[in-house]
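Q: Could you fold this chain for me?
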Amino acid sequence: METEQILERLCAVGAPSGFESPVALAAKELLMPLTDEVWTDRVGNVVGVRRCGRAEAKKLLLDAHLDEVGLVVTGYKDGFLRFSANGIDLRMLPDREVTVLTNPPMLGVVACLPPHVLSAEDREKAPQAKDLFIDVGLSQKKAERLIPIGTPVVYRADLIRLGARQVCTKALDDRACFASLLRAAELLQNRALDVDLYILGSVCEEFNGVGAQVGAQALMPDYCVAVDVTHGKTPDSSKDESFVMGGGPVVGIGPNCTRWMTRRLLNKAAGLGVAVQKEVMERSSGTNAWPMQVANEGIATAVLSIPLKYMHTPVEVVELSDIEDTARLLAAFAANLGEEGAQ
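A: Sure. Below is the predicted structure, expressed as structure tokens.
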């Protein structure tokens, strides 16, 4: 399956933090042809393993989270839905289309006052959750019956092409990175490995990283690479904190990144002729590398990122070449890792 098709399949699924089961099922099906065994753990993580066949082989864990930002229904007012937000900037919400994850799903829009009735002062104010409602076109009685409190809600979005190389939709943070893990596993299919390769589709990263923490503690890998997104350059973005779309994967450098693993990523990229960018992470990387690094007795950890524009919006954008180059770099990193180790 082509990367664009994989993205379309994964991102079409509504699965915010704590409600990842539907996307976990899709991830599991995509992993099965590429690994020896796939399972779902107690917290909902999807785990695939390709065993190298060597006794007491070391373990490499590649992680990308499956959850997305979203909303949760908290109440009703005249048939409109009240909600709380997880990871969504409230400024993004007025007049947005959303999908309420009932069975079957129900479409809605976030209610907004037209500009004609807003004062100049109100136009300048950032919205607050208490002032926003989801309109699903129902009466109070029907809303209460059909949409229980606690129902998750996500952005409604279709995958579209921007130019020849970029794709746009919701939930590319972090399903674009999970697609890169699938592609890396595909690139390694006919290559002998000297480590057992684990692929983790983790849950709840947008909440507190509990999925990666539990996964790392249970699997006890020797090495982890957290693959996540970072900010892509736009005309109004900070030049120091954003990265070129199509400029290649971004290698993390800092205390959350084991130094020899960072060097290995950079050296393997040079050997492949893959362009990479560097991101200095002076504190927490803001990724699953943070909880994984300190799991058990400590795990050698690296961070690899894909540039993404418009993070945590329904119009996230990635460049397909960055997904491919990330996969190529991960495959090169995994090859001969057991023999070469911390060189």
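A (continued): The CA atoms of residues 128 and 149 lie 20 Å apart.
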